[in-house]
Amino acid sequence: MASTIKHKLLSCLVMLAALLKFSTANAQVPFYKDASQSIDLRVKDLLSKLTLEEKISLLGYRSQAVPRLGIPAYNWWNEALHGVARAGEATIFPQAIGMAATFNDDLLKQVSTAISTEARAKYNLAIAQDRHLQYMGLTFWTPNINIFRDPRWGRGQETYGEDPFLTGRMGSAFVKGLQGDDPKYLKASATAKHFAVHSGPEATRDKFDAKVDEKDLRETYLYAFHELVKNHVESVMSAYNRVNGVPNSINKVLLTDILRKEWGFNGHVVTDCGALDDVYLTHKTLPTAVEVAAAAIKAGVDLDCSSILQNDGIKAIKQGLLTEKDVDQALSAILRTEFKLGFYDDQTANPYHGYGADSVHNDQHLALARKVAQQSMVLLKNNNNVLPFKKSNYSSIMVVGPNAASLDAMIANYHGTSSKVINFVEGITGAVDKATRVEYDLGCDYKDTTHFGGTWAAGNADATIAVIGLSPVLEGEAGDAFLSESGGDKKTLSLPASEIAFMKELRKSVKNKPLVAVITAGSDIDVSAIEPYADAIIFAWYPGEQGGNALADIIFGEVSPSGHLPLTFYKDMSDLPDYSDYNMKNRTYRYYTGPVQYPFGFGLSYTTFNYTLGSKLKTTYKKTDTVAVTVNVKNTGKFNGDEVVQAYIKYPNIDRMPVKELKSFKRISLEQDKEGVVTLKIPVQDLQKWDLATHKWKLYPGSYKLVLGSSSTDEKLTADFKISN
């Protein structure tokens, strides 16, 4: 009996010890680290545990560690414009403007999915070594969805072009791939930038005041931002400049009234880097950093890419300009993002924790980079169908030009690094057999108009491919494009005079043999200066690490070119308003009626396509309807190829209506002689325009026209319809 009692007592003691151990273990896990709780409750709990000083220390992009709560330091500044940037080896996709030229939002989502996979892998590898480095995090300050309203803007290459609809579609696709589709965790955080009305001039971006009326603001400059908010972008970055006198980073109308209250944005707002310093140093709209810190948080800023909030937040509270409640509201927004990324959870519970080194820069991502580069390149000229080259007809090829082997011209700005970049020389060389002679020469530089190389050798070759154009040191962001003569922007549309002179000399040397010009740039270029000397012209943008292979695929007919211009190529800068004028009149295909080099949406193919309507439109539509049309597309040429069916709307003849406007598009791949069906849908409410009298969106009744074609000036099919009240 005694033995039995002793045994039971011992069992009870063991159970009690286990319960105490379990209870103690649970007591040591703070509520904010309980992944089963809602994010809002977890944020509230964490806020209650932080001191005011600790809260302030978390409001800058160099977020400070709070060791007593197990919060590590974190750097919010990370880049992924066209691949994980500035973080070591990563796949380098074509520059954003080139990806826009694909008119393929499904493909862009695949790209950003690959980017976020590499980002997660690099983050996992860094954290495993207790490295908390800038550019190795998960909060990415991309995409750039500003409207490329003027070809002088050096950073236009970072955007998806001049059209709000295309920008909204492509930007939303990028966000979806970057942030992932897990119901609980963000794969990475995307940021829509730069909010708002920001597209040059670069040299004065820190003090410039963009004057814009409400109609252009709503219809052009805010449209894509609203689209990305509707598609749950996690972050928005405020721009450097002022809008109608108010610096963006203290603009309550934009950051709170429109972004949060009207659109329902529930992510966090970060300033562009140093933008708060600009408020008092260059804009001079407030006298001190302390007042700026208070004004920024009250306007809706949550995170500062400088040090003003961290340095002056406490001072603002002590001076009565700010309350701890204001700080809590800002900090709550950025903490929610951290919780969504899984920063406070067991990493093994995160669906992305398994990504490692084999997820970075792998064969699948390289193949994707090649595919995107193929679809991005735009064929501008193909005289007498000189392209594609049949390899057996060319025993010797000359590849020449300042950008033929240029690394910068491949990788653009905001780029990663790669051990596998294939430049244009390497791409052409690798595409032909070992019995084919390929030569290379730099040919010319960006300055010298009298000394050239490779012209004699070109005359001895069966065909010449000349790679000319710009590079990211001639156009880009202020400070980065250090060879730009105007702070990163372009003064003219001209190619370097040395390249024009070089093309003339090449033409003389090659005589009647094929001469193909390949142009690299991130914007509108005066192609007419070299057009007479080239039999074919390919606009390659800055095509990423697989650009050389992609060009060879097009040159030798492995694929038919299918890129389309996401911006208008004007004839001359004199056709445009003053660069600092943000009024949309006479800008972009939507409002410009003059002659152009190449229209928005333009791009040639090796094959031809025929359209027939598969369905008729209704006579009249109302606001709740959708204009839906099916188009039968047939490949009527001699090559397999892709067509991009573009749907434009022409509006009633009312003051300040666009000339026409892209409202749907769809890419379709068709083999020779094959036919396919494209369905395009346009919600009627998307045809609303801003009414300046009522300060609201309004659907104007009247006669409309649907135009279907392969560019903004191509009218293969049209259909009239009316909209009623």
From TrEMBL:
Keyword Signal listed? The answer is yes
Q: Which GO terms describe its biological process?
A: arabinan catabolic process; xylan catabolic process
Against SUPFAM superfamilies, the record matches this protein to: (Trans)glycosidases (SSF51445), Beta-D-glucan exohydrolase, C-terminal domain (SSF52279)
Which terms are listed as keywords in the entry? Hydrolase, Signal
Gene3D superfamilies per the record? Glycoside hydrolase family 3 C-terminal domain (3.40.50.1700), Glycoside hydrolase, family 3, N-terminal domain (3.20.20.300), Immunoglobulins (2.60.40.10)
Signal peptide span: 1-27
Show the InterPro entries listed in the entry. Answer: BXL (IPR044993), Fn3-like (IPR026891), GH (IPR017853), Glyco_hydro_3_C (IPR002772), Glyco_hydro_3_C_sf (IPR036881), Glyco_hydro_3_N (IPR001764), Glyco_hydro_3_N_sf (IPR036962), Ig-like_fold (IPR013783)
> Which stretches make up the Fibronectin type III-like domain?
643-712
What GO molecular function annotation could you give as one example from this UniProt entry? Answer: xylan 1,4-beta-xylosidase activity
Q: Which family does it belong to?
A: Belongs to the glycosyl hydrolase 3 family.
PANTHER family in alphabetical order: BETA-D-XYLOSIDASE 5-RELATED, SUGAR HYDROLASE-RELATED
Question: What is this protein's record name?
Answer: Beta-glucosidase
Native species: Mucilaginibacter gossypiicola
| Phylogenetic placement of the source organism | Bacteria, Pseudomonadati, Bacteroidota, Sphingobacteriia, Sphingobacteriales
